[in-house]
Amino acid sequence: MLNITNEYVSSRSIILSMETDKRRQWNLKRVCVRLVDCRKTSEMVDSSECLLLIGRSLSSGEAEQHLDNEKQCISNAKLFKKQCRQSGEKPYHCLDCGSNFMTSKELKVHQQIHTGENPYGCDQCGKRFTQSRYLVTHQRIHTEEKPYGCDQCGKRFTQSRYLVTHQRIHTGEKPYGCDQCGKTFAWSGNLVTHQRIHTGEKPYHCLDCGRNFMTSNELKIHQRTHTGDKCYSCDQCGKRFAQSGNLVVHKRIHTGEKLYGCDQCGKRFAQSGSLVVHKRIHTGEKLYGCDQCGKRFAHSGNLVVHKRIHTGEKPYGCDQCGKRFAQSGSLVEHRRIHTGYKPYGCDQCENRFGCSGHLAKHKKIHTGEKPYHCLDCGSNFMTSNELKVHYWKHTGEKPYGCDECGKKFSRLGTLVAHKRIHTGEKPYGCDQCGKKFAWSGHLVVHKRIHTGEKPYGCDQCGKTFSVSGHLVSHKRIHTAEKT
């Protein structure tokens, strides 16, 4: 006889007393013992009786049939689950790996890991799942159903947990803190990734090139550099992207949408990262420092480009003339010399320019604006670079030296042009006759032979010239100046 007055019935004692085979031991534990409310009965029961049917004796045949029955008794199921939650007991044991579970359903789902069973299949794509709820969630990809909506901004989600984490954007809640540096995060996954900065851990490995990455998404994106795969395409212009986020941002070019606004000056941006970087103008924050000279920058990209001054690296080369550049944007602008493409037009006159900086500088001719002021002599300049070069007249500084002949220059561009004397390089070619020149200015003057353009006019007699130097020489006729 078993006394179950003051303690839970031990499944082990019942299993041993019944002397059944392993399967029946398991069913006895599963069907009978789990549903006994041991604290509410004081009866003495025989071990051959069903503990759910106290007071009702079973014949040996009935007991055997009951023990072989795999259906769950449910009369006291809720009570038993409540007891398990309160006590923390996990009476369901996986014989394969030893894991314990609170309910038989949890155990059943877990055992599908060992069996590989995925009983729930999607009729759209065939993907299979261990639980029906995972299938329901997955099918929302096909139906585009998003039942969970944010009451702040209206954004909708396929799963409630995504809504919960999204709402932290509005509340500012960041419950996950780094124990190394104190930085906090809205999402636990971001904390895990962040902590790898401290540990240096990069668990995701590219089998093609051997590079390691901190996140699986970084690896996935990187692998597209090997495959050339660009899965996401713009339905407006057809441009393709390797990342869906890049496509979302790109589409704002077509819509003009700028979601992110600066609370200091009101300027708006299409990308959140651009807003973050912009705010450093107001705060003066410069996070990125050069380990060679100590110069600091607000943008990591500017630091990367700056370091090329020290290394001499010029990774971007022109396929027309071979000239190389430290920045990709400089190469893009340079190529327009060869193509003649001038996308930037002045709204005051008909002049057009190959780069936006030249247009901005040109517009100051119309406005007369010279915002850069020399404290030494009072001269004003249209650009900060003009002022910088001007200062060197006062200091006598010529920071750019030719490594061939030692001649020094106050302007980098002048040094670059000078070096062509030594190399014989003539990168600028006339598209009319093919004649080549070492300097772009010489090409501009030469083209006037073909066009007949003579932009320099004498204010004394009206005679015009194609070269400014010729006008200067001509004016000496009027002034009787002799050379």
UniProtKB/TrEMBL annotation:
SMART domains, alphabetized: ZnF_C2H2
Protein origin, superkingdom: Eukaryota
One Gene Ontology MF term: DNA binding
One GO BP annotation of this record: regulation of gene expression
Entry's Gene Ontology cellular component terms: nucleus
UniProt keyword list: DNA-binding, Metal-binding, Nucleus, Repeat, Transcription, Transcription regulation, Zinc, Zinc-finger
C2H2-type domain location: 92-119, 120-147, 148-175, 176-203, 204-231, 232-259, 260-287, 288-315, 316-343, 344-371, 372-399, 400-427, 428-455, 456-483
Pfam families: zf-C2H2
UniProt subcellular location: Nucleus
Stored InterPro entries: Znf_C2H2_sf, Znf_C2H2_type
PANTHER family: C2H2-TYPE DOMAIN-CONTAINING PROTEIN (PTHR24376:SF243), ZINC FINGER PROTEIN (PTHR24376)
Family classification: Belongs to the krueppel C2H2-type zinc-finger protein family.
Protein name per the record: C2H2-type domain-containing protein
